[in-house]
Amino acid sequence: MHTHNGRFSYSEAPKPLAIVTALHESHVQATILCAKKNGIQIRIRSGGHDSEGLSYISDVPFVILDMFPLSSIDVDIENESAWVEAGATIGQVYYQIAKKSNVHAFPAGVCPTLGAGGHISGGGYGNLMRKYGISVDNVIDAKIVDVNGNILDRKSMGADLFWAIRGGGGASFGVILSWKIKLVSVTPKVTVFKVKKTIEEGAIDLVYKWQLIATKLPQDIFLRAVHEVVNVTQKGNTKKTAQVTFIALFLGNTEKLLTLVNKQFPELGLKQSDCSEIPWVNSTLYWYNAPLGTPIEALLDVPKEPLSFSFKTMSDYVKKPIPKDALKSILDLLVQYDGHLKMEWNPYGGKMHEISSSETPFPHRAGNLFLIEYLTNWGEVGVEAKNHYLNISRSFFEFMTPFVSKTPREAFLNYRDIGIGGNTPSNVTSIDIAKSYGSKYFNRNFERLVRVKSKVDHENFFRYEQSIPPLSH
């Protein structure tokens, strides 16, 4: 089973009535029609990275439709595009592009084992977003199987459905078979670096300055700030402290990057020895924390077993700089949680501020400084451990309330969080419940998604705990 979260691999986890491994698009059509006829819900899994497991577990009888074998990738460099089947991983996409060209790329996530079907339909962001936007901003066609078993492309599905599946979550509307993506241009070599600073080394001042400049830097640079807890040894004593890693991707050479950073962010103290010039495809592995020099074939690796550890993700959007005293409190609290929680702060600006919030269902555009991903992970098993760490996760999330977006407190669909609302059991759906999460994921676009759903699946066959309901439900 392609599951990437230990908390859904326990023996008591809900099991499907069957797993249908789709080897051909006709298998998808047959599964939909059979399940519909027999009143059985389906869960659609491409990469298995759904952070709440909603693509492969449920509290009602269900069948898993596993898209993983449908993984072909057809790269057309002449037309700067590619057809990517839903089960292909993002790492495979990067690899196949690189086999054809060293000056083309695709804006998508850092984790290479993400499935293209779900990752792209939820929005899909990565370190090219300040230059080229997110994945759905670079989708030019798609194939989807609808509730009646029809295979539709962009023309036959119509503008509304094509709009909805690009960031609204495809599983509310049908089964994504494939995406036609637009390739983007990158330099033959890009420059990357990681600079790590603890609280004792001035991390708080650096993070505060980062908030002021990261969105205003040229769009060729993406500078993420990762907050975590590390052990440091001083005078023979080991203690835990908070550390911030500034990790960058720059579409250009080291000389240009040094000039840029040392002018805009001299406090970072960036040196030439911190930087490495590598092909873009190699940078995708670097960002995944693989050592420099790792063969690009590593992008093709897919875990054979479920992950042994468990995790919980959440997200926030920040619109105003967080004051220094609050930053200190945040990092101090991270240390109290003993290294089980970390944050990744992803800067906006550039292209993200140029695209309208209604262009796709993904609404998080101008007005945001950065996106926060919270990641809580643990290795212990059992319900008690799970509840303990989920409480830590929720407690930290509540602590962050004063510093993040409000009315609604926005969230990113790809960082699925059932804590912001959901239908339980999933066969009971309502507009009022759906608004609780829909307004946070989609803001004002939620109403349009409901209208599209009502048009293409008015009987609400495609549903799950956080799906888009039709007006009649």
- What share of residues is helical? 25-40%
Question: What's the average pLDDT?
Answer: 94
Output the radius of gyration: 22 Å
Kindly estimate the percentage of residues that lie in beta strands according to DSSP.
15-25%
Determine the structural class based on helices, strands and strand pairing.
alpha+beta
> Class of the domain at 73-185, according to the CATH hierarchy?
Alpha Beta
Could you provide a short overview of the structure?
Among the domains are: 6-66, 2-Layer Sandwich (Uridine Diphospho-n-acetylenolpyruvylglucosamine Reductase, domain 2); 73-185, Uridine Diphospho-n-acetylenolpyruvylglucosamine Reductase, domain 3. Helices cover 27% and strands 23% of the residues. It has helices at residues 25-37, 90-100, 116-121, 129-132, 154-157, 159-165, 203-213, 254-264, 280-287, 324-336, 383-399, 431-442, 445-456, and strands at residues 18-21, 41-45, 62-66, 73-76, 81-85, 104-105, 139-145, 151-152, 175-182, 184-185, 190-198, 221-234, 237-250, 275-278, 310-318, 341-347, 370-378.
